[in-house]
Every structure is written in C-alpha cells, then in structure tokens.
Amino acid sequence: MNPMLLIGAAGSADIPAQVITTVITFLLVVITLKLMAWKPVLGAIDERRKQIADNWEEIDRKQAEADALRKEYEEKLRHIDDEARERLNKAVDEGRRVAEDLIAKARVESEEITRKAREAMDLEIDKARLQLRRDAVELTLAATGKLLDATLDDDRHRQLVDGFLSDLEKREA
Questions:
Q1: Which residues contact 15 (CB under 8 A, 6 or more apart)?
Q2: In degrees rounded to 5, what are phi and psi of residue 153?
Q3: Is the CB of residue 131 less than 8 Å from the CB of residue 107?
Q4: How far is CA 72 from CA 5, 19, 62, 87, in A?
Q5: Whole-prediction pTM
Q6: Distance between CA 68 and CA 74 in Å, rounded?
Q7: Of 129, 139, 136, residue with least CA distance to 173
Q8: Tens digit of pLDDT for each residue in 149-163?
Q9: pLDDT tens-place string over residues 124-142
C-alpha cells in the first residue's frame, strides 16, 4: 500500500504518534549504535590516532637518528680530510728528509772522492819528484862523468849528487 494513503486514511491525529515513534526509533538506533558501534568505531579511531602519533614519534626519532648520523659522518669526513692532509704533510716532510739525507751523503761522498783524488795526486807528484830526482842524478852523473872523466866509482858519484840535491831542496824550503 501507498504510505500516502495511510496518512490520508488515518488522518492528521496520527502525525504526533508517528513523530514520537520516529523519535523513539531514532533514539533506539542512536543508543544501539552508541553501545554497539560507536565504542568500537571510537576505539578504532583512537587506536588509529595512537598509531599515527606513534608513527610521528618514530619518524621524529628516526629523523633525529639520521641527523645524528649525518653529523657524525660529516665529522668523520672532516677527520678523514684532516688525517689525509696530515699524512700528505708527513709524506712531504719524509721526502724532504730523504732528499736532505741523499744530499748529505752525496756531499760526504764527493768530499771523500776529492780527498782521495788529492791523495792520489800528491802521491803522483811525489813519484814524479822522485823520478825527476833520479833522472837528475842520472843526468848529473853522466854529465859529471864526461866532464871529469875521472875514476870515481858509480856509488860515490850518486852520494855526491844526492847530497847536492838535498842541499838544493833545503835552500828552496
């Protein structure tokens, strides 16, 4: 049946009863929903709100950890840069020290070579002087022998010439 026909047939006296019935039904539905649906829905909403708050706290905590790690890594990078710079400076200093050692060794070796060369040169000069002296003695003996044509023996000639050359060296010094 058509609900309009019921209203028309029942008349206008039934409208307050229908309103009361509708209000009571609405209140029963609200109370039933409050007891049965709202608590679980509100509980679910509260639980979701708590989850969201916990998630935000976790995000904040992880953000703080990430910031701390970033700062720690930046500090480590600075230390690595400082350490690398320090190692480089040490290597440069070590290179300079090695170069100075090599220069010092080369200087000592060159001085030793120079000293040995002077000694060898002095030895050669002494040998040359001795040879020159012998040659002078030989020439003097030969010349004296021809000049004097005397019968002095060879040993006596050498003694006389050696004495003469020694006297000359003493006068030069």
A1: 7
A2: -80, 170
A3: no
A4: 83, 72, 15, 22
A5: 0.38
A6: 10
A7: 129
A8: 555 677 777 787 788
A9: 998 888 888 888 778 777 7
